[in-house]
């Protein structure tokens, strides 16, 4: 009865003026008194958690269960397992993940709970602690081999979030030859995600290099999704390319891995230097070597101007001119998957002959390149101003949609993207395939930032 009375009082005070210090003090006193009842209060709070119109409200019940801490842990685990609806699962998980326990070891009994929702919730609880979970991360190891994929994935996310403090644990797991294969594979992915290739020990690095050699031998080029800057140089001399970009420590990789590294570094690489630590240098593709990424000095200078491709327009032109002195011709292309930005720059014999950026067409230089013809440039309207004066907006929209269909069916050229211009002038990364002639080996090489900070963390497809 006392617990029920406290629940009613907290609910009543919750509906009063929240700015009145007397109400606030009374409500907090009632909360503290209820929490002091510990496990005895848990059944009634769980009932409140399930109700939509109880005196407390489910969120208040959840926060009180969190404050009770360990006595509420296994009852909440059972509530998750028995939840009759997705909303009931979310409510119970909310309370479970945020329990105020002094140490994550309290969650150990729930690791072996028969219901996968509970085991997955344990992983969420560890993930919520971030690097604070490192000391107890060994308790997640059984979940890496869980029969349910969502549980395995949750445990991996939690270990990744725990940071570098879990690296010794994961290296030890990799060396346990008698352990579950799933755990060892997951440990390898987390090691790469947290610490990058340098986090692997010598045996794992040797195994990875063997796998790359095997897969690179018969690899068929795959289309890439351009998002970021890349250069195209008419050469197969990779040593000269590495020297021209100030790269070192080249590591042979598959083209798939190189492309994955470019995407990862562009979008999700952690840390200040994640986007500028390494560059993917392709093998020779139809007579051209493609270089994906931005050398670190240029990337840091361009960051101050928020240049879309990681290089300022002036930096692009200087680079292309400098590279063309060495290779005769140098192309630079830029695209971004988040908007319509597209740009390109061509240089020959130390001189920029054409530069275009859809976001700054007034600064374009040089005559239109044959690869841009015959359609309009991306910033240009296909129809002159006033073409749709006096026509209803719906009719104009329908006409433009129909025109786009006709143009596609007849193969009529439209405004080109950087990838399409590249396909006509050099090599289109989005059109790589079995028809592409390959010479040499794909490489990942370190920039100046990479030499100082190493490869960014991240697991990549081989």
TrEMBL record:
SUPFAM superfamilies: ARM repeat (SSF48371). InterPro entries: ARM-like, ARM-type_fold. This is HEAT repeat domain-containing protein. It comes from Streptomyces boetiae.
């Amino acid at each position: 009865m006392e617990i029920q009375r406290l629940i009613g009082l907290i609910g009543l005070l919750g509906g009063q003026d929240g700015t009145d210090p007397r109400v606030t003090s009374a409500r907090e006193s009632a909360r503290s008194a209820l929490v002091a009842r510990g496990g005895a209060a848990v059944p009634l709070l769980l009932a409140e958690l399930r109700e939509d119109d109880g005196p407390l409200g489910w969120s208040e019940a959840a926060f009180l269960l969190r404050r009770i801490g360990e006595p509420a842990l296994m009852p909440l685990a059972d509530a998750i397992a028995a939840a009759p609806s997705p909303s009931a699962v979310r409510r119970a998980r909310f309370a479970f993940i945020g329990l105020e326990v002094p140490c994550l070891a309290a969650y150990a009994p729930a690791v072996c709970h028969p219901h996968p929702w509970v085991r997955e919730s344990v992983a969420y609880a560890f993930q919520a602690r971030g690097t604070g979970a490192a000391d107890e991360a060994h308790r997640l190891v059984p979940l890496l081999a869980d029969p349910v994929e969502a549980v395995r994935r949750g445990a991996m996310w939690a270990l990744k979030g725990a940071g570098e403090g879990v690296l010794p644990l994961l290296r030890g797991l990799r060396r346990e030859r008698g352990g579950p294969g799933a755990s060892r594979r997951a440990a390898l992915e987390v090691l790469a995600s947290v610490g990058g290739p340098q986090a692997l020990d010598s045996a794992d690095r040797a195994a990875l290099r063997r796998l790359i050699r095997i897969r690179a031998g018969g690899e068929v080029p795959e289309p890439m999704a351009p998002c970021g800057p890349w250069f195209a140089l008419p050469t197969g001399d990779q040593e000269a390319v590495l020297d021209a970009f100030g790269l070192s420590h080249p590591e042979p990789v598959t083209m798939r891995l190189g492309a994955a590294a470019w995407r990862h570094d562009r979008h999700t690489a952690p840390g200040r230097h994640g986007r500028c630590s390494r560059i993917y240098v392709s093998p020779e593709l139809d007579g051209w070597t493609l270089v994906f990424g931005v050398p670190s000095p240029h990337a840091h200078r361009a960051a101050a101007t928020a240049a879309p491709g990681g290089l300022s327009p002036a930096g692009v032109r200087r680079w292309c001119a400098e590279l063309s002195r060495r290779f005769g011709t140098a192309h630079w292309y830029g695209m971004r998957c988040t908007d319509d930005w597209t740009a390109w720059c061509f240089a020959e014999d130390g001189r920029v002959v054409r530069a275009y950026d859809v976001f700054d067409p007034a600064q374009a230089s040089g005559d239109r390149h044959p690869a841009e013809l015959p359609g309009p440039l991306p910033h240009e309207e296909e129809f002159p101003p006033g073409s749709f004066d006096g026509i209803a907006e719906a009719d104009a929209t329908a006409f433009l949609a129909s025109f786009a269909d006709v143009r596609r069916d007849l193969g009529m050229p439209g405004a080109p993207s950087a990838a399409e211009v590249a396909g006509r002038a050099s090599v289109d990364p989005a059109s790589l395939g079995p028809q592409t002639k390959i010479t040499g080996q794909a490489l990942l090489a370190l920039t100046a930032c990479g030499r100082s900070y190493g490869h960014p963390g991240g697991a990549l497809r081989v």
